Amino acid sequence: MGFAGYAAIFDVPDRAGDVVRRGAFAAAGRVPLLWQHRGVPVGEIAAIGEDACGLRVRGTITALELAGLVRAGALTGLSIGYRPRRVRQGTYRELIELDLIEVSLVAQPMQRAARILETLEETSE
What we know:
By secondary structure, the chain is mainly β. The protein has one domain (2-119): Alpha-Beta Barrel (Serine Protease, Human Cytomegalovirus Protease, Chain A). 6% of the residues lie in helices and 54% in strands. The protein has one helix spanning 64-71, and strands at residues 2-9, 18-20, 32-35, 38-50, 54-61, 77-89, 93-106, 116-120. Strands 1, 2, 3, 4, 5, 6, 7 and 8 form an 8-stranded mixed β-sheet that branches. The protein is globular. The model has no long low-confidence stretch (mean pLDDT 94).
């Protein structure tokens, strides 16, 4: 089952007080799709890139139980695992440059708007 959405949103503080800035994912390459930031991959990320809103992803979920939850609208959260390369500390910790490690399906994303926005029958566009 395919999906598309945002794994991170720019310029919006998350629940921990981090703010991702435009350009933070400039070096993002291929990463795995995990469940809750753990374990073996539960699918794959087919396309990843920044747009005006954030880090847009498109992928496929191969874990049948998770695919069913996403299809039913019961699981919509996305999140990122990363290593900060450049940060700026102010009122919030601004994430300027990141090494993206993985994208995860999550029950509760740190960024409330980091969500699956649509389900797709196939992920090729």
